[in-house]
């Protein structure tokens, strides 16, 4: 699992979802890379990505 610092904002990687979550506390797992199946996942099943990594996060969301 990727390591996310407290305060990191994640958004759904699915283009039509747009939900967001904020990491309140960092994961305390000593070896998160040993559990590749452990990841933040949206309710729709798509992986969560940092807002900085999400190309749809730039620009206006008004439409």
Mind explaining what this structure looks like?
The structure is a single chain. This protein is mainly beta and 63 residues long. It has one domain (9-54). The chain is built from no helices and three strands. It has strands at residues 9-12, 20-22, 48-50. It has a three-stranded antiparallel beta sheet, with no helix packed on it. Strand 1 and strand 2 form a beta hairpin. The termini are far apart. The relative contact order is 0.32. Mean pLDDT is 76; it is low at 58-63.
Protein topology:
Blueprint: E1 9-12, E2 20-22, E3 48-50
Antiparallel strand pairs: 1-2, 1-3
Approximate helicity band: under 10%
Distance between the termini: 34 Å
The percent range for strand residues is 15-25%
Strand order of the largest sheet: 2-1-3
Provide the domain count.
1
Q: Helix segment count?
A: 0
Class from secondary-structure proportions: mainly beta
Using the CA coordinates, give the radius of gyration: 13 Å
Q: The biggest beta sheet, please?
A: 3 strands, antiparallel
Low-confidence stretches: 58-63
What distinguishing features does this structure have?
16% strand, 3 strands, single chain, mainly beta, three-stranded antiparallel β-sheet, globular
Quick take:
The protein has 63 residues and is an all-beta fold.
